[in-house]
Protein 1
Amino acid sequence: MSNLAEQPLENEPAPERVVVEDTSQLAEIRPIPRVTIQAFCESEAVSRTLELASQDRRMAKAHVKVHTGGIPAAIEFYDSAPTPNLIIVESRLQGAELIEELSKLAEVCDAETKVVVVGTINDIVVYRDLIARGVSEYLVAPVTMADVMSTVSDIFVNPENGVLGRTIAFIGAKGGCGSSTICHNVAWAISSAYENDVVLADLDLAFGTANINLDQDPPQGIAEAVYSADRVDDILLDRLLAKCAEHLSLLAAPSTLDRTYDFEAKAFNQIMEVAQRGAPYVIVDVPQQWTGWTKEVLSFADTVVITACPELTNLRNTKNLIDKLGELRPNDPKPHLIMNQIGVPKRPEIGVADFVASLSVEPITTIPFEPALFGSAANNGQMISEVDPKNAISGSFNMIAQVLTGKAEISGEKKSSFNLRALLRKKK
Ligand SMILES: Nc1ncnc2c1ncn2[C@@H]1O[C@H](COP(=O)(O)OP(=O)(O)O)[C@@H](O)[C@H]1O
Ligand SMILES: [Mg+2]
């Protein structure tokens, strides 16, 4: 990797030119996972190298956009747009001026977004300062494709820098309470509103509805993955994914009864591990069952979301789930709760305040019973926000996506900012 620690010190600004590529250096680089990368360049040379890198087969799964305008353009852009997994900024600024611009950028970035700076000063002090401030890498122009791709690979593929993806598992407190519908709509919201890649895995092999809700009928999916679990790798998984939208891929359930679906407890672990290395979000629709493998999947997930309706059986089951998950995951936050189907006509309901009183968990949100809206979405194979984007329930799904990902609000308003402290902890 071309960083300053390995290069001679000199203060000459680098000339604007594309370096002749030694393509043999690319051979070592592993394919880049499903990440979004946006670059804001100042020089023709750096933008051309990034464009070329984006067309390399190793970057085929990444979504790369190259803009001009350097850090000021990035600051303006992210004032109203969601931030990607990685921002590459080129700047001719130095010292305090560069730091000043980067702090302004930090204010409009989500904390998880990584930043790589391409500068002109070949100086170890600058390098160390930027790394200490949380910049993932500092490259000196001119850069090669190999510099760029090995930097991206180091950030997202190198296990020393942590696992790329987070797994969010959804389970219902009772069959029919809307867990799958909410799971699919939240997966959609993360992938469309935040433009982050999501792999949605439907683990309800017999009766799964993600294929219907997302209007997909792929020949293969989660069943092929679980029946070859010992040899699941990124190549096999890629083959089994059905692309539903630019940033959303589905591991569909067969939803047939040709077989019975009894699995050993760890049957899905390898699949989830591989999926997590390939995309920033893995969303798992867990059927409402208590088996060795559903328990294992819920224990494995980074975040668990329970959907419940306001009645007694749901309350008992929610309490049991929260207690059991607390035992299984003593060092993790409590599961999130979503109250759904509030206000079914003539049905006696437990008020939300009473429902949560004995649970020590506050719901992220409550979703009303809206049979016309949910019915047309299900029958048309559409998401709620496609049927009625202005409906408050579409806003609720965006809000749930925001809470689960910890990202800033998308509303056209200025996003809640993070300071350079957040940048500080990026490089592990
Ligand atoms: N808030 C709601 N209002 C009306 N119908 C809903 C609501 N949430 C879910 N549904 C409907 O309830 C049914 C069961 O939902 P589903 O997501 O399959 O439940 P689960 O996965 O918990 O068994 C579906 O027909 C779905 O469209
Ligand atoms: Mg379901």
Note: Residues 4-161 form a domain with the Rossmann fold fold (CATH 3.40.50.2300).
Protein 2
Amino acid sequence: MNLKILFHIQEVLKEAGYFDISRIANEIYTYSIEKNIPLNLILERISNQEPWEYIQGFVDFRGRKFLVTKDTLIPRIESEQLVDIAKDLILKNDIKTVIDLGTGSGCLIISIAHEIENQLITFVGIDISQAALNIAKKNGSTGKIYFYKKDLICKEELEDNTLIVANLPYIPTKMYEELDRSVKEYEPRLALDGGSDGLLYYKRLIEQIRLSKKEIFLLIEIEPSTLTELTQATNNIPFKVFQDFNKRNRFVLFNFS
Ligand SMILES: C[S@@+](CC[C@H](N)C(=O)[O-])C[C@H]1O[C@@H](n2cnc3c(N)ncnc32)[C@H](O)[C@@H]1O
């Protein structure tokens, strides 16, 4: 390994705003050699703020590789915690169906299905984007997971004993507009912009669950600043808030029973 080249890659990464520069510099170096792609072409893309995950075409999520393209969000590390909360719920309750709404790359439902390994549970991934679903299907091709193209889910399709895990677009539009170029120019807006209050999709979904009158757990990831508005809009539904590793109110579990 050429240290001078490695330092150069690290400098480019630092300039582009990366934090974990030594790990990624090693990955770029190895990728360039293995794929026989000139380093300067990769570094040019990095300097143009293109996320490294899209360049290499995959991301690590809970120790598993997931393909990602510009049609799928790059899974965020904090979302890994959704899998832990979901697993705990499944183990303590008689869950028959797990639905991942806004599945993107499929990282949540595929991780849950693999880590739970329960043949009696039906695992479903839903997304409005066919392009994202095509990637999710590739990622989940070895497991028994059903993927569907749908705009959320409606009350008639819901059954008792279902856990819905949802990481739907939740960034308020104004906040979205101020995000870095690396996000706005490369990641799909459809995966991020949650409307003026960041709750456009969650409010619609909660209404459908409420109308279904079924026994359902809903576990969602949110923008922490929208928590008060969310819980006001859902007044009498019991809920529990979980913090992420930065101690921010990131996940909410509703119990519709
Ligand atoms: C924040 S991304 C989450 C992707 C993935 N679950 C993850 O955690 O990395 C939100 C996903 O919701 C999908 N989506 C947006 N609007 C939707 C809708 N109305 N119905 C279903 N999925 C939707 C987007 O296409 C995107 O894949």
Note: Residues 73, 75, 79, 101-105, 107-108, 126-129, 132, 151-152, 167-169, 190-191, 201 surround S-adenosylmethionine (CB under 6 Å).
